[in-house]
Design goal:
Length: 393
């Protein structure tokens, strides 16, 4: 490509010009000639992108301090030595981020006065362990925290960060994905609330660690652990008898909760009203637990049970029909799981006239109604109800 062809291509489309230049053989003489056109828009970007651009031209480009050009130059390992001493910390940060950074330059940047440069270097996965060790001792916690984002951080250094005197670094290390199981075990057994609390936030805790943390003497640790839906059911038995209302609320709202634990929870006298409401709305509500909720329940709680869409709640729904409340029975009629012979028969027997009208309006049919229910419909004063009874014959 000639100088004129390159300039024309840059004017047409700079991106395509760069790609074309990278796949073409451009002589050094042409690249030197282009240095005379640096005032032409795009020429500096083109030259900074070419691997064969002469050093003298690259020096000119650095002196112009165009941010886009500097960013491109920072990708060139041959310029790292010069750019690592650039007065602008943002430029030195670009060098620190480069994956082709050589150890000698990395060592220099590890002692850089700008925190942002050392942070960028700490995140660079290509830095060797001796550089990691230097950054591990950095006086600024942000730099040590940045090491946690380095996927190639030495496991020994990771364990060292877990013992960091800075509480934030200490806690964040215990949350890091690459933390070893042995380190987790050590901190789960160590009598320190912050460490145990950090571990309890993890979603990948091995069963032995969960078991250990569930016995913690710190309420906040046990509470945090309880938020894990992976917590084994056998460890929940101690929680359902708790007097801590927040613990009971979390239990009532757990994604899964065994039937026996639901029953134990509803029988706990410390269970607050809002937790009872959460239980009544569970999509896996156990029938025996539902029956227990019915006892001494408020109208609002009974209504939540009436609209609960858990398929298997026959005893609970039967108990709700026996209460005979008009609104409650209407809510039950809107529940698709009520149309069973036993439940619907009981509902009809205990229904008021307006509820029977509602039954006719909904057109609910169910074979196998009890004789008592059929008689109630057939002898009703409302013609529409009597007519409905004939359709069930």
């Amino acid at each position: 490509m000639t100088r004129e062809e390159i300039l024309q291509q840059i004017a047409t489309n700079l991106g395509e010009a760069v790609q074309l230049g990278l796949h073409s053989e451009i002589g050094l003489g042409v690249l030197r000639e282009l240095a005379n056109d640096l005032e032409t828009p795009g020429v500096d970007v083109f030259l900074a992108s070419m691997p064969g651009t002469p050093t003298r031209v690259l020096d000119l480009l650095m002196q112009r301090n165009n941010p886009e050009v500097i960013r491109l130059l920072a990708q060139n390992p041959n310029l790292h030595a010069k750019l690592a001493t650039h007065p602008d910390a943002a430029v030195r940060r670009l060098v620190a981020e480069n994956r082709r950074l050589v150890p000698t330059i990395a060592l220099q940047l590890a002692k850089d006065e700008a925190v942002e440069v050392r942070v960028a270097l700490a995140k660079n996965q290509m830095i060797p362990t001796n550089i990691q060790r230097i950054l591990l001792q950095d006086p600024v916690p942000f730099v040590r925290l940045a090491l946690l984002e380095n996927r190639r951080l030495d496991s020994e250094f990771m364990d060292g960060l877990s013992d960091d005197l800075n509480p934030t670094v200490h806690a964040c290390t215990l949350l890091a994905p690459q933390l070893s199981p042995l380190c987790m075990k050590s901190w789960a057994e160590f009598d320190e609330e912050l460490g145990q609390l950090a571990l309890a936030q993890r979603v990948d805790l091995p069963p032995p660690i969960i078991a250990k943390l569930s016995q913690s003497k710190y309420p906040r640790v046990r509470l945090a652990l309880l938020r894990h839906n992976t917590l084994p059911e056998n460890l929940l038995a101690d929680y359902v008898i708790s007097e801590d209302t927040e613990v009971l609320r979390i239990l009532a709202n757990r994604e899964t909760l065994a039937a026996d634990l639901q029953l134990a929870l509803i029988e706990n006298p410390a269970l607050p009203p809002d937790a009872k409401s959460l239980l009544a709305q569970r999509t896996d509500l156990a029938d025996q637990a539902g029956l227990q909720v019915c006892e001494n329940a408020t109208p609002e709680l009974l209504q939540l049970l009436a609209i609960n869409l858990t398929p298997e709640l026959p005893a609970t729904r039967l108990r709700l029909t026996e209460i005979g409340d008009s609104l409650l029975l209407k809510l039950l009629l809107a529940n698709p799981f009520v149309a069973t012979p036993e439940i619907l028969s009981s509902l009809i027997v205990h229904a008021t006239e307006d509820v029977l009208s509602h039954l006719v309006y909904r057109g609910i049919t169910c074979p196998g109604l009890s004789q008592e229910a059929r008689n109630r419909l057939a002898s009703n004063a409302l013609p529409s109800v009597r007519q409905y009874a004939q359709t069930l014959s």
